Amino acid sequence: MLTVTAPAKLNLFLHILGRRADGYHQMESLVAFAALADQLTIEESDALSLAVEGEFATQAGAGEGNLVLRAAQALRAHAGVVRGVRLTLMKHIPVGAGLGGGSADAAAALRGLNQFWKLGIGEVALHAIAATLGADVPMCLASTPALAHGIGTELTPLPHGMPPLYALLVYPRAALLTKDVYAAFTLAPPVPAWQPPVGADAAAWLAALEGTANHLQAAALALSQPVAAVLQALNALRPKASLVRMTGSGACCFALYANEAMAEEAAHALKAERPEWWITATNI
After folding, report:
1. Is 136 labeled as catalytic in the residue annotation?
2. R_g of the chain, CA atoms, integer Å
3. DSSP symbol at 98
4. 246 CB contacts (<8 Å, ≥6 apart)?
């Protein structure tokens, strides 16, 4: 048996730079990964199967549309594997929240099955398989902070990493479809390429990120009153909270903290105020 973690992804900023002829959008994004994670357990079996458990199991589904099964099938086809495997996915990451849970699960399947079946597939080939499953899957393979360009598959690791940061995540349990958000999106004015601070502490990083944005946020606000309510609640936590914004195409939003205790305290207070929302504090 092998258990692999699938960390949630946060877009600390997301700049849409233009639209390509094929309909995909050029982007620049700083992606980071949280301690919040799904777990994928792999066991020997004659057949390929997937069971999904946890709070968000129903929304994720265990059928052919689940990216975990698609990742397993793609890896088997690439390597000529005919063996089966029993996969059990424990879903802690909300579905349709913009936290990249499905992509993280698919990446975990690729990493885990490559190890479990002792295939020895290298990083470049595994990255190519991941790219066939979705633009976010390659960045979830390493689950380390990186600048993403192109359609999200061109990744530049941060040379000096990131200092510890803490996120308050709030999902109003009202999913947004990525295609709807992009349909409502209006291209923003061009922005200069972002450069990460060198050798900076958490406070300097938070300050450097304040000048960035999520260009999809305005479109999401036009579509979703729940997202507007979450952002209003998080902005009310300033100045203790920093960098309040939506992640990805939503609907999860976050506030960043340099201090873990402050993030936990804010999560506890907001849970009491809005029990209908999904709320957690996590480190990134």
Report:
1. yes
2. 19
3. S
4. 98, 214, 216, 217, 220, 227, 231, 252, 253, 254
Pairing outcome for strands 84-90 and 48-53: parallel
- DSSP assignment of 42-94 equals EEEESSEEEEEESTTHHHH-SSTTSHHHHHHHHHHHHHT---EEEEEEE--SP
String of DSSP letters for 224-266: -HHHHHHHHHHHTTTTTSEEEEE-TTSS-EEEEES-HHHHHHH
Catalytic residue among 9, 38, 91, 105: 9
- 80 Cβ neighbours under 8 A, 6+ residues apart: none
Q: What is the pLDDT of residues 223-257, one digit of tens each?
A: 999 999 999 999 999 999 999 999 999 999 999 99
User: Cα separation of 177 and 11, whole Å?
Assistant: 17
Q: Is 91 a catalytic residue?
A: no
Any idea which residue has 């952002």 for tokens?
A: 231
Q: What is the pTM of this model?
A: 0.94
194-232 pLDDT, tens digit per residue, is 999 887 899 999 999 999 999 999 999 999 999 999 999
Q: 62: closest CA among 49, 73, 78?
A: 49
For residue 142, what are its two tokens?
Answer: 């390493």
Q: Give me the catalytic one of 22, 136, 180, 240.
A: 136
